[in-house]
Amino acid sequence: MSTTTPPSNTRAGGTDAPGNPDVSGVDLELVDVLKRYPGQKKPAVDGLSLHIPAGEIVMFVGPSGCGKTTSLKMINRLIEPTSGTISIGGEDVRGRNVDQLRRHVGYVIQGGSLFPHLTVAQNISVVPRLLKWDSRRTSERVDELLELVSLDPAKYRDRYPRELSGGQQQRVGVARGLAADPPVILMDEPFGAVDPITRQRLQDELLSIQEELRKTIVCVTHDIDEAVKLGDRILILQEGAQIAQYDTPEAILAAPANAFVEDFVGAGSTLKQLSLSRVSDVELVHPTTATVGERVAEVRARAEANGDQAVVVLDERRRPVDWMWLRELAAADTVRPVRDDVLTLDRRATLNDALDMMLTSTHGAAIVTGRRDEYLGVVNFTAVTGHIQATEQQLAEGRAADATAGRDDAWEGGGA
Amino acid sequence: MSRTDTTRPVAVPAGDAPRSADTETAPRRSRWAVSGESRILLLVLPVVVALVFGAWAWWRATADLDSIEARQLAWGLILDLIWQHVKLTLVATFFVLLVAIPLGIALTRPRFKRAAPLAVGIANAGQAAPAIGLIVLLAMLLGFTFGTAVLALTLYAVLPVLRNTITGLQGIDPTLVEAGRGIGMSGAGVLFRVELPLAVPVIMTGVRTALVLLVGTATLATFVNAGGLGTLIVTGITLFRYPVLVSGALLVALLALLVDWAGRVLERVARPKGI
């Protein structure tokens, strides 16, 4: 119940954990994959070869009609390739019965595409039932998955899709894709149909799920920011699924391979850099906090001592429940939250997300939470701009060093 | 995490993010929550039918009838005719479903999709042809029997069910079908567990239309010796006994209303929860 307990380690939440031994995904390999639709001169996918390492998220991006969705659907044979081979964990996808294959490859679609006449639990258990799991194992799995996607099983298990919000439907869609614990998950514009704040939350959740599960995830998106945020690697495709660049987000933003990539990534590349930095990378500030039920007089004294106009109200499990101005506190003897939903940022959220939320917040800052929604601190504009400046400086130094080492190298691929 | 390049100025993203609606949940709705109009139909219709039938029964018991009328309107005969009529309707409906639903399914599969307009055209012709002509012509070919009447009625009522089966299946969001296939359901699995359940409301509307059509058309079965309430009407006309004629017409109308009501109840019960 003290004021500003600093979180033990705000920088621990990075997403880069290469070489994790708990990888449950498998490698994916595409060799010379070609798809030609009858009656079309040019192939939709023209000789795509690609290696996707186990346990990574690879984002397929590109302009519409570039063949990214076709490429994705060829992996689970929703579209049959004209030629070439695709193997999952070293096994050719054409070697197996197509329905059997798909039961072991997760598939998540925009908006969730839930079956409206089935309950949430029935939707999730479609694949386990096809795999003939017994009903106890299936229902345990359903509850486990609902927990994983942050939906209370008791509350949502028996609901129908139309009784859920868009974000909740999408969560159930993700749970359905994960149901039979497939090593590979394909996602087709998974978060395209929800509002920006929900989308950001879903992205954060996906990252946290992935931190735990380490699946191989292939995700199609048209949103380069989403690609930068979620991807361990990004595959940028041109017409005919020609690879324009296939690399880490950092490398693509720093050195676009050609003019196409540069155009696609867009002019606001500094802005994109904001999608690379996580909230956990910046220094959080720690305004006065209060616990629900605490005496207002004490809280007020503490806030005034710290020079704060507002206090972050936490519940007994240290989850933020409200962010109250001192004048709002005055109404009662003990601290009681007045709003019922306070917007918070996950520590995995990008600085881009953080700026978004700060702009809509009356406090000009955003509350950051960690595991199990535990309060970590507050991120404000000063922290973000400070971080950007530090990065810029680092880059400038790096560039100066490069320039002295080998003049042209630093600008290679700049595609002037 | 270190960044590696950029010299462009920092801009701030437009703050067009609406407040999250993620915690909101659409209201729960029971399947019995119906609009005012259909509630009136569901509740009031059977009452009206019962009242009118009661009034007719009272008239039948108290009216001053001559011997022919009394014979034609004997309770035993009336109940027989009603039962024949119901039997004709139900048996024909059974065959209509047996033909129209599988045909409708087949005509929405990729392989036979192109035949759909042709099949609907033929069914249209079946309905457009005068029912009396159809029944009598078939009777001349196949004999004056119950079976002939059922065949003619079936041909006559296939169209609404066929058309609604096709419409219902075509109206299903193709991404749901792809989702089903994409997670590993077989083609038949998607048909029986996704497509048909979702098409049930539309198909059932077709079934109700067919039922009402059949009740009305079954009055013509009397011309091929297959009985039904049409018998009363025909007798009433040929013998100039208006009480008999009106009673027949009234009973057919009441039966049609009752069947329509049963169809509505069935529609509501068969509709899968959640849609």
TrEMBL record, chain A:
Pfam families: ABC_tran (PF00005). Residues 1-12 have a biased composition (Polar residues). Residues 1-23 are annotated as: Disordered. The keyword ATP-binding applies. Keywords: ATP-binding, Nucleotide-binding, Transport. Belongs to the ABC transporter superfamily. This is ABC transporter ATP-binding protein. It comes from Nocardioides jiangsuensis. The lineage of its organism: Bacteria, Bacillati, Actinomycetota, Actinomycetes, Propionibacteriales.
Automatic annotation (TrEMBL), chain B:
Its main location: membrane. It is a multi-pass membrane protein. It is found in: Cell membrane; Membrane. It comes from the Bacteria. InterPro entries: ABC_transp_perm/SBD, MetI-like, MetI-like_sf. Belongs to the binding-protein-dependent transport system permease family. Keywords: Membrane, Transmembrane, Transmembrane helix, Transport. The keyword Membrane applies. It holds the Pfam family BPD_transp_1. Residues 1-28 are annotated as: Disordered. The keyword Iron-sulfur does not apply. This is ABC transporter permease.
